[in-house]
Amino acid sequence: MRAKQAKRIVGIVLILMSIVHVIYGEVMLVRELKSLSADGFLIGSYRVMSLQGGILLAAVGIVEWLSAERIIELFGFAAYIPLGVVMINLLSFVLVVAAVHRELMQYTLPQCIIFVVIIALQAWSLRKAY
Fold first, then answer.
1. How far is 9 from 7, CA to CA, in rounded Å?
2. What is the pTM of this model?
């Protein structure tokens, strides 16, 4: 596999994950919050965080895809920013789950595995490109 293919895969998977993130958050979790009669502040706060996470994933996915297609070029430190964003995203998630909400790990393990594969592909593509 070439670096270009790895970046393309990462970009597409992140864009798809961003769509799923927003749809799942809106359809499943906001609906559940409403059924529990949560107040508008709680529902709005969750909705904003879900959308922010989805947009962040989409933005990194788009940058990776554009980079793979050579529409944009990231040089030097900038080439590592998409990898850093995904690593910070996963690290913050794992720390919160490990420290406060361990019961979430069984439900989110597949997502964590996907993110580890994405990080590995990103790191591999950077190593091949430079």
1. 5
2. 0.87
